[in-house]
Design a protein that fits this description.
Length: about 525
């Protein structure tokens, strides 16, 4: 789902690939161009929120636009002058040197939205639609949700400023009061320093490879590196967010590394919705978490590195040696210790899916399972479970036979999803959570009884949820669903034919499943 996150992020983390491949730059920023655009969900002035409902359609002019108050020419001069002071502050705090002057420009809301939307080309739209279907297959977006409509509406509501690495310009906003722009400027100017240090466009391109768009089957290493764009996004946004918070509390004489309670309170405030963030407030859990991930987890990652190794470790060094998985971002100790996780066994996709047309493929990282578990079991269970993740990937496909027929075009998306956990008990717990999701995602779910002798469903007091062990099968309106746990691994097959599923079971587990 990373690419889904990544494309959504690139287009607007355009916005995310959770397992998927659609969202890119975890903030309403356009990522193909790697422009750093900050949104209200990311800045303390424009908090974000909860309670998902269907997002309203975008309108040419919102009431928020009508309430815009243009800053005066004198205020603009003052704002331009403060750029150099804040850039100097950021440089001293991060240790990243100022190599050249940063250009500045005063821009309007319409100019900002035009800048962003012009990057929504046909290829981006195609990727978004692909990711949207996969996200819906996992139940992370409602079936009637229009991702493109949501993103366009979000862009207009949430944008709060941006740094453009192409023109080396920080764009200041003519409708935001000057006192509200200064902390955001501390964020944006950190991007300018990053750009001068490593070249943001080139640096971010390291993670651009989309596994769904390459002809060759991905290797285990390809899948492991599929989260590279999301983790790099978290580094650059986490560093910038850390400087925004540091700038905000600097007058108190405190530091973000020694005042965790204050930082937590500020972080919490940024995640509390207001009447001015209606589009964001209405977003499904997956989109909210994806959009805020680079800022929240990214900043926590940077602060942890500052505490362990000072500003050199947290800024210049991590830009030279960035993490490549969301696990390393969410659990900084795994990055600091150099943790190595054994690569997962991957099947021969081209051979096994010979009756299908590849639709999407990618890693299902630690962040992805965290959101998936939160969606179906709640945040406390998610926080307890996601550190136990040890690998995952998905493959989505459409039937190849008679692909021009109406029945083929309307055929449900077929899905293989494999995840690995720290122990058999954790794998069984995740299998139970995933099985619970079926009742919310399908209109009809009838479990096929009398299957393999090793199948069992038990309640584990320590796990606080049902453990699903062995092989289970359900009939749904979109075909069969198989959830199979063997040791530390869980295989999910949805809407695949029995022969393909049997072949995949053999390849994933290394031996045929127990006879029935």
């Amino acid at each position: 789902m990373n690419k889904a996150k990544a494309h959504v992020f690139e287009v607007v983390w355009l916005l995310l690939a959770v397992v998927l491949s659609a969202a890119t730059s975890a903030s309403p920023a356009i990522a193909q161009d790697t422009s750093r655009v900050e949104t209200s969900a990311a800045s303390a002035q424009f908090p974000a929120a909860q309670e998902p409902t269907k997002p309203p359609p975008p309108t040419p002019e919102s009431s928020k636009d009508k309430d815009d108050v243009k800053i005066t020419a004198r205020q603009a001069d003052e704002l331009f002058h403060s750029v150099d002071q804040i850039l100097d502050f950021d440089s001293k705090q991060t240790g990243l040197p100022i190599k050249r002057e940063v250009k500045r420009k005063l821009t309007s809301r319409d100019e900002v939205v035009a800048f962003l939307t012009k990057h929504l080309n046909d290829e981006d739209t195609k990727r978004l639609r692909r990711s949207e279907l996969v996200l819906k297959k996992f139940g992370l977006l409602p079936h009637d949700f229009n991702l493109e409509t949501f993103l366009v509406a979000l862009l207009r509501e949430e944008v709060a400023g941006y740094y453009d690495p192409k023109t080396k310009t920080v764009n200041l906003l003519d409708w935001i009061p000057i006192e509200e722009q200064e902390p955001v400027m501390a964020h944006e100017l950190t991007h300018a320093l990053q750009d001068q240090a490593v070249g943001l466009q080139k640096w971010m391109k390291k993670g651009e490879k989309d596994l769904a768009e390459i002809k060759k089957d991905p290797t285990a290493a390809d899948i492991e590196n599929d989260e590279m764009d999301n983790s790099r996004e978290a580094v650059i946004e986490g560093q910038a967010q850390a400087m925004m918070f540091q700038y905000a509390i600097a007058p108190t004489g405190r530091s973000i590394t020694t005042s965790p309670a204050m930082v937590d309170a500020m972080q919490e405030e940024t995640l509390t919705g207001t009447s001015g963030t209606k589009v964001f407030n209405s977003a499904p859990i997956f989109l909210k978490e994806s959009l805020t991930f680079p800022y929240t987890y990214g900043m926590d990652f940077v602060v942890k590195l500052m505490q362990k190794g000072g500003k050199e470790k947290a800024f210049a060094a991590v830009l030279q040696n960035p993490p490549h998985t969301t696990r390393q971002i969410m659990q900084p100790e795994t990055y600091l210790s150099g943790e190595k996780i054994d690569p997962m066994r991957v099947p021969d996709f081209k051979h096994d899916f010979k009756e299908y047309q590849k639709f999407d493929i990618g890693a299902m990282g630690e962040f992805d399972v965290a959101v998936l578990i939160e969606e179906y079991a709640g945040k406390p269970t998610s926080k307890r479970m996601y550190p136990e993740w040890r690998g995952g990937y998905y493959y989505a496909a459409k039937p190849k036979t008679d692909h021009k027929s109406d029945s083929a075009r309307t055929a449900p998306l077929a899905l293989l999803y494999v995840s690995r956990w720290s122990s058999a008990d954790k794998a069984a717990e995740f299998a139970g959570i995933y099985a619970h999701s079926l009742h919310q995602r399908y209109k009809k779910t009838e479990e096929v009884m009398g299957q393999s002798p090793d199948r069992s469903t038990t309640q584990n007091a320590e796990a606080e949820s049902e453990l699903l062990q062995g092989r289970h099968e359900w009939n749904t309106e979109n075909g069969s669903v198989i959830i199979e746990e063997q040791g530390d691994t869980v295989l999910v097959s949805e809407s695949l034919d029995p022969g393909t599923t049997a072949t995949l079971e053999t390849e994933v587990f290394g031996a045929p499943p127990e006879s029935k």
